[in-house]
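[Solved] Which block belongs to which protein?

Original post:
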Amino acid sequence: MTEHHHTPAPRLSRRTWLGAALATGALAATATAADAAAPRVAAAAAYPGPGHVTGDIRLHDPSFVKRPEGGYLVAHTANEVGLKTSTDRTTFRNAGVAFPGGAPWTSPYTGGARNLWAPHLSHHKGRYYLYYSASTFGSNRSAIFLATSTSGNSGTWNNEGLVIESFPSNDYNAIDPHLQVDGQGRWWLAFGSFWSGIKMVRIDPATGKRYDGAVHSLAGRGGAIEAPTLFQRGNWYYLFVSFDLCCRGADSTYRIMVGRSTSITGPYRDRAGTLMTSGGGTEILAGHGSVHGPGHQDVFADSDNDILAYHYYDNNGTALLGVNWLGWDSAGWPYVH
C-alpha cells in the first residue's frame, strides 16, 4: 500500500497482533506448525545477543529513566501504561500501571480500549514526564497525552492532557512520542509511525505542551518506519528508528536504524550520506538467531556505558526486553555490543 492512500495496510501489522496480550506483555506464537518447523534464517550481520536480564521482562516498547534516588523506572505498552522497576538494570519487577483507575480521557481515540501504546519516560525539574499514545489499529486518528508525577509510582500520575493529535487529513500519525532536550535547553517531541514518517514539534518546558504550530519532518520511507528515539552525543544528534514490521511474533521483521545531524531538527543522514527523509538509515540491529524483530528502541546514557534497550521476540513469539551496551566507532557511529 503506497503512502498516498493514507491508510497503509502495514499499519495493521504493527498493532493487530497485540490485543489483550499486551496487558502482560505476553504474545503467543503466530506461526503455523509448518512455519514453526521451517528453519529461520539469521540476518547476515553477526549481531550480539541481548545482555542478561531476568524477572518480569515480558513487554513491548520499553522506555527507561534513571531515578534520582538510584535504580530505573521502565514504562511500556500495556493497559493503562505498564511500569517496571529495576535496581541494577538486570532484574526487573512489575510496578503496576500508571493509571490504575483507568484513563477515560483516551477513550475517544482508543474506541474504549484500555491499551495505551509506546510511552516515553523522562525526568526533569524534579518531575517525571510520561508521554504516551492513544489510537486504534490502522488509524491515524491518534493522540499523544502527557502525565507527570513526582515519584513515578503507580497511581501518582497526574493527567496533564492532550499534547498533539492527528486526523485522517494529516499525513502523519501522532503516536510513538520521544521527548528530547537539545543543547540549548529547548524541548522537542519526536513522534510518528508509517504515513509520511517521523515528525517533531517543539515543546514548552513550562507546560510540557506544544510551543508553536510548526511540524518538522525528520525521516520517512513511504511505509514502515516508526518509534523515533533521539540521543545527543558530542556535536551530533542521533535519530534511531524502527524499520519494517513489529508484532508478528517470531515472524516480526523490525530492525533498528540510525542517522545523525548537527541540528536536532535535521537534516538527518545515514552513514552513506542518504537523507532519512528519503528512506535513509544505517542498520545497527536486526533479527539474528533466536532474536526476532528487535525494535522500538530506547537509548540512554548510564554510568557505565550508553545503553540500547528494545523489545524482541523469542522463537515462541514471546515479546521480551533486550538490553545491550551501545558503542561508538572512530567515525562516531553507534554499534551494538
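(Second protein starts here: sequence line, then its C-alpha cells.)
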Amino acid sequence: MALDLPDFPWDQLAPYKQRATAYEGGIVDLSVGSPVDPTPEVVRRALADATDAHAYPQVAGTPALREAIAAWYGRRQGVRLTADHVLPTIGSKEFIAGLALWMGLGPGDTVVFPEAAYPTYELGAALVRADAMAADDPASWPTSTKLVWLNSPGNPDGRVLSIEQLRAAVARARELGAVIVGDECYAELGWDAPYDSGPTPTILDPRVVGDSFDGVLSVYSLSKQSNLAGYRAAFVAGDAAVLADVLAIRKHTGMMPPLPVQQAMVVALEDETHVQQQKARYRTRRNVLRTAFERAGFRIDASGAGLYLWATRDEPALDTVAWLADRGILVAPGTFYGAAGARHVRVALTATDDRIAAAAQRLASAGRVAGG
C-alpha cells in the first residue's frame, strides 16, 4: 500500500522560478540554502589523500573521526563525550527522515516538531504512519509522544532556543518517555549577541540534560559551516544506548559514510579558521540583504542565526513570492514550513556576492509597492 507522503514543496516553485528567470539580468535564486562558496582547500586535500579507499568503510566511523566529533563538542560546546556517544551519518537529512522508523514507531505514536519546521520531520512520521504534531509548547505534547524534534537555530525562522527553553523541553520529553533530538546544523552561524562570537546552545549542554544524556540526541552537519553539502558529512551525538540501537540497524542496511569523506570530516572539524571565514562571508551578505529588504518595506522576524531571513510584507506568502519573482528574485514561501509561515517568506543567504548585490539593487529600484 502506497504511503500518503506530502508533496515535495519545491516543485510548487516552478512557475515562479520561470518568472524570475525571465527578468532582465537573470534570476537571483534565494530559495534554497545550498552553499555556493568553495569547499576549503584543506578539506579537499584531505579527501584527495584518502581516495585509495578499497575496503569497506566503518558504519560507526573511524576511531579518528569519532574522536574528532567528541573533541569538537568539547571544544565548541563544553560537552564531554566519548566515542560511544557519537555516530557519523550520510548527511543529516537521512537521519532525520529515518529515526522514527529505526525507533520502531508506528500508528498511534506521535512525532512532535516545531510549528515553523523543516518538512523532513513530518516526512519521518509519515513514513511510519505515526501522527505528526507541530507544537512549540512542551506542555501541549500528548502522552502518545515518542519522538520530539527541536530545531535551533531554526530553519526557516532563525530562532534560537535558550538554555531554559531547551531544559524545559528535555524535562517534558523525559516525563513522556520520548526521545528528543536537537537539530543544530546552524549552530556556528549566530548573528545576534551573544551568539555572534560563539555557537548557539546545544541540547547536550549539562545545564540542559543534567548528568545524563538519557533520551537526548544532537544532530549536526558540516554542510553549512564548511561548505560540505556535496560530501554528505554529518553526525549525531548523545544517548549511547539509543545510538547503539541505531548503529545496529545501520550496519544491517549498509549505511556507511565513504572513507574519504570520513577523513575529510576529521580535518574539517579540527580546522576552525575556515569556519570563521565562511561566517564572515555570510555576515556580509546578510547585512546587504537585510538592509535591502527592510528598505523595500519588509519586516524581518526572528532570524537571529542561520542562513535565512524570515521576511514578511503582511500578506499571503505566495503573493510575496510572486512580487519578488517579478523582480527576478526567487524565495521560498513560508507555507513550505507549516501554517505558522502563512505570511512569511524564507530568504537564503546562499548566493554569490554579485547576485546578492543584484538582489539588493532590484529591491532598491522597486521601492515599496504595497500589495503589488
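Accepted answer:
You had them paired correctly. Confirming on the second one: The radius of gyration is 21 Å.
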